[in-house]
Amino acid sequence: MIRPSLGEEEALAAAEAVRSGWVAQGPRVAEFEAAFAGSVEAGHGVALSSCTTALHLALHVLGIGPGDEVIVPSLSFIATANAVRYVNAQPVFADVDPLTGNLTPETVDAVITPRTAAVLAVHQGGVPFDADALAELCARRGLALVHDAACAAGSTYRGRPAGAGATLAAWSFHPRKLLTTGEGGMLTTDDTELAARCRRLREHGMSVSAGDRHRSDTVVLETYDEVGFNYRLTDIQAAIGLVQLARLPEVIARRRALAERYHKLLTDLDGVRAVTDPDHGTTNYQSFWVVLPEDYAGTQRDVLAGLKAHGVSARRGIMASHLEPPYADLPADLPVTEHLARRSVILPLFHQLTEAEQDTVVTALTETLRGRR
Fold first, then answer.
1. Which domains does the chain possess?
2. Is 264 a catalytic residue?
3. What three-state secondary structure class fits 135?
4. Continuous segment of H or E residues that includes residue 291
5. At the N or C end, where does the chain have fewer CB atoms within 10 A?
6. How far apart are CA 55 and CA 171, in angstroms?
7. Are strands 160-161 and 156-157 parallel, antiparallel or unpaired?
8. Strand pairing of 185-189 and 44-48?
9. Cα distance between residue 252 and residue 221, in whole Å
10. What is the DSSP letter of 330?
11. 3-state secondary structure of 345
12. What is the distance, to the nearest Å, from the Cα of residue 304 to the centroid of all Cα atoms in its chain?
């Protein structure tokens, strides 16, 4: 249902990195960090091994730890909640807006307690959350706000890139994302000291990076001033990322054109609601989800099976983490989250999708829904 948009240029860039002899974190990583940070209007980029490690590192450098609570959406890939557990804090689930699938000031405010230390808000499926509104609430309540921008590369908020101005924003370059390095992630920030500390921590807490040591004209002996992690990105991945970043505007334009066509094709399907741009920004359509009609008597699984019978590979909607075993013991009153998780389906959307394939998807969905209405 999704295929990464990779070609000969990415293959050549990776091969060039291999031939250079510098395949670990090196000059291409630094170039990718600067280019990506510039693309999202951030002062600094810190390349990491995944968005999950980026989320963990963000909470770690903010000092979140035991006894703290971090408000997160349950309607998100489970890594969002897991990152809170990695720092031995407690995730607290808040409900989401039914149209965007995102946290709102109202849903966050409803679950703030004296132990709340931070809000980890997700730009769900590439749909930007209302960052100004959440930032105002967090500032008023003395809370840190971290952007989980895993899916948001190329999305916009009030005319700027999603994630711009964030204290810390975490990004994913997994193959399901519009910009991929195979695996990989990035933290962006305008805070020079935070960026410097994150760079040390991703490399075991090393005071001087391996690259800087090798480039130095003098002998440099590093120190390890705090416990760090091995969260580095490789130069091979960064070489691919630089090509992907240059192609990102073209990829987004294609996805938005395909999404617009989906919207037109779905007009005649009564009761089906598809994801769209919020009032405050534009989505990159990293995922194109539809919410099933209220009068459809079948289940999400029935729809997926019906589509599969027509040769269409679709996915369930965004998961609800509080319904999974690791979090089933936590209190959660999340009617919107549960409705979206159980009544939405993600339709195929990728760069190479043809109009004929789109027609097949919509025909299959139409016939599947008719069977149980």
1. 8-246 (3.40.640.10), 249-370 (3.90.1150.10)
2. no
3. helix
4. strand 288-291
5. C
6. 9
7. antiparallel
8. antiparallel
9. 45
10. S
11. strand
12. 24
Using the CB atoms, write b or e for 293-314: b if 16+ within 10 Å.
beebeeebebbbebbeeeebeb
The position carrying tokens 């760069």 is 351
Backbone angles phi, psi at 370, to 5 degrees: -60, -25
**Two structure tokens written together for 38:** 């510039």
Tokens at residue 81, please?
A: 């909640």
User: Does residue 186 contact residue 47 with C-beta atoms inside 8 Å?
Assistant: yes
Cα separation, 338 vs 358, in Å, equals 28
- Give how far the C-alpha of residue 208 lies from the chain's centroid of Cα atoms, to the nearest Å: 30
Q: What's the token pair of residue 36?
A: 């990506």
What is the β-pairing status of strands 156-157 and 281-282?
A: antiparallel
Residues 6+ apart with CB under 8 A from 19: none
From residue 119, alpha-carbon distances to 69, 148, 158, 168, 312 in Å are 9, 10, 21, 12, 37
Tell me how far apart the terminal alpha carbons of the chain are, to the nearest angstrom.
26
Cα gap 166→198, rounded to integer Å: 15
Rounded Cα distance, 52 and 154, in Å? 20
Residue that the structure tokens 């959406």 belong to: 73
3-state secondary structure of 245: helix
pLDDT digits (tens, 9 = 90+) for 46-68: 999 999 999 999 999 999 999 99
**How far apart are alpha carbons 95 and 240 in whole angstroms?**
37
Q: 3-class secondary structure for 145-212?
A: EEEECCCCCCCEECCEECCCCCCEEEEECCCCCCCCCCCCEEEEECCHHHHHHHHHHCECCECCCHHH
pLDDT per residue as tens digits for the range 214-226: 676 677 788 899 9
Residue 299 pLDDT exceeds 90: yes
Condensed to tens digits (0 to 9), the pLDDT of residues 305-324 reads: 999 999 999 999 999 999 99
Q: What span, in angstroms and rounded, lies between the C-alpha atoms of 47 and 356?
A: 39
Read off the pLDDT band of 1 (50, 70, 90): low
Q: Are 118 and 65 in contact (CB under 8 A)?
A: no
Query: How sure is the predictor about 207, in pLDDT bands with cuts at 50, 70 and 90?
Result: confident
Taking the CB of residue 206, how many other CB atoms lie within 10 A of it?
18
Q: Which of 177, 200, 202, 322 is catalytic?
A: 177
